[in-house]
Amino acid sequence: MISQREQDEWRARSLQENGQEWDESAHNEVATRLPPLPHYRIEIVDVFEEYSRFPLREAVKLYGPTIRYNPKLYGEVFRRSNRESSVLAGNALATPLIFNGLLRLFTTIQPDIVVSIHPIINYVTIHALRELNLNIPFITVVTDLISVHYSWFAPGADAYVVPTEAAKQLYLKRGLDPERIHVLGMPIDPKYTLPVENKEELQRKFGLKPDLPVILLVGGGDGAGGLHTAVRAISQARLPVQLMVVTGRNRRLYANLQRTQARLHVPAKIFGFVNNMPELMHASDVIITKAGPGTICEALACNLPIILSGYVPGQEEGNIDFVVSNNVGELALDPGTLIDALRRLIKPGSPELRKRVANAKRISRADASFAIAHFLLRHLPSDEKQSIWQSARWQRTQLKMSSRLQSAIRIHRLPQRLSPRLLKSPRIPRLPLLRARTRDISTESVDRNR
Prior knowledge:
Largest sheet: 6 strands, parallel
Family: Belongs to the glycosyltransferase 28 family.
Helix content: 40-55%
CATH superfamily of the largest domain: Glycogen Phosphorylase B
Keywords: Glycosyltransferase, Transferase
Main location: membrane
Number of strands: 10
CATH architecture of the largest domain: 3-Layer(aba) Sandwich
CATH topology of the largest domain: Rossmann fold
GO cellular component, one term: membrane
GO molecular function, one term: hexosyltransferase activity
Structural class: alpha/beta
Number of helices: 21
């Protein structure tokens, strides 16, 4: 979106300079007098899947199943690892499994800036960038609201972007450089800043009744958070409401709710993983969700009162305090508390509902993604400055790199030069390194999502 806006401004300036309607001839004539047309190349990489080795590559896939089936275990792991000694020990174990992969990634893509939105490998990423001996900015964008794990703040990053003042205080307690911390909000999909149809039109679009409060139930992308229990409790209480339930990637829950939908005592619409969450939220009056930071901030952007039906121990405990202390919602872990909270909010003219809607408007930072994107763009080198990857410094670094690392980088690039016929040879399976997967590199203008 930022890139599109800058391109529109560039064209408008070109028209103003040329004094006529836009066409290719006008563009060619004026382009030489204007700065280059803004353009950004974005690479989104799953470093665990594409550049790490077993068992690290598989271990990170356990997050979804663990928070769904054994959240207490996840909470215990979070708490035990949330200290310096544990983080350093984990980094020592992870480094051999991903270090060379990161070097291959950086030397293949040759980035001007590296941005991390995951805490696990920040330490080893900084180590890899230092190994290259290049001044490439590394910025950490923290995506936890309050309970920020120790591993997020790896010393040596150029900047740390956090969503709340509470997260900033945790950073400062570490004794790190106060000039490098920036409170810019939680990045969410930019669609939440766009105008939508009014509530009545959206409800009509989703086939909802116009005279019943709409309750949206969301369990996050992995469908956790006690959704089934909440739906059953609302049905048994026969509240005068209608439900929209988003089960995310939890296919078993989706199938279960589909089977039992006809037996519910309240009208209900059941969805799986959706891409139109802004419309669903704007069509609703209250949201029931687990305490995930993304969903909380999205709900605030839509001025929705929040009822928290669950949380991931350790990681999301601080989010409960954030919601309750700002009086935008409450915690309801048992059916009785949930039903009482709903009754207060759906009561006609509810003062509690009005107060929470007003508070959501007050603390919402729907445009945080734009603020973060502008902050990142400020760290890019100017168009006139030579890329560090074409500099003499990089040439010297390549000469000094160990033969082992040079071989690792060359082997990663080799399959791109091998013919498809050779890659199908029965001898190739004996050389797993030569069969390293090559990626399609997607190029796109900056269009910040979520």
